[in-house]
Design goal:
With 287 residues, this protein is of the alpha/beta class. Helices cover 37% and strands 13% of the residues. It has an eight-stranded mixed beta sheet, sandwiched between helices. The longest helix has 21 residues.
Length: 287
Amino acid sequence: MGQMIDMLCSGHAACPGCMEALSLRHVIAELGPDTVAVIPPSCLAIMAGPQPFSGLRIPVYQPTLESSAAAASGIRRALDVRGRKDTHVVALAGDGGTYDIGFQSLSSAAERNENILYVCFDNEGYMNTGAQKSSSTPHFARTSSTPAGKHSRKKNLTEIMAAHEIPYAATATPGYLDDLLQKVRKAKSMRGLRLITLLVPCLDGWGVPDHFGVGLSRLAVESGVFPLYEVEDGARYKLTGPGKTRPVADYLNVQRRYRDVDEAEVEQLQREVDAGWQRLLEKAKPC
């Protein structure tokens, strides 16, 4: 691999130790300078900066929160008309703008199989506006809008998008950087709608020290809470990360947002993770 071209400027407004900034730096470096980014309101938009200024060394368009996939689709078509078919178009959005408010435009773009890459930076809540819950927030996690814990489970975006039979859907995390970069590289070589759901722990929102983002990302994978896998054409599943080797409690115990969970809730979360892991193993079995 050649030397990485850094296209995220220094001096951006991310928090110390921010996993989104780390992930963003590597994602756009892998895509290269011939890329146009679509970034809706989010922590990422704060890093990019107010137009016409930018913290990224690639063109950035900031649409409304609900329209990332639609905006990216329009930019893709405009570039194609101009003969710039090799320019990458990437939507860089948070879970609020993907799982929730932007899902309609994302699902529609998937139905049309628009030729865009969509990267969801999933920090499991509306962290930019006060750490409120989203439909990506996990079961029993405490947020500013669910102070007693969330009573519903996390939406499985990767499986929902795989059901659209898009060319590529995958999970990734900066805790396993080689896996993340390999998936960006693979997605970039394909055509049609490609989605990478990227788990990025919010250090302040999740209640962990500034230095622990990478370690927590690894714990999410090793406990089976966030398995690493990819799905091609909605049918071909492949596990790409380590197996489930740790109890869920190892992951929960280091986060402030789970500080009040009781033993029964921990056991329920373990059952949910075990069941999800078993379903994934079945889907990833060779035919």
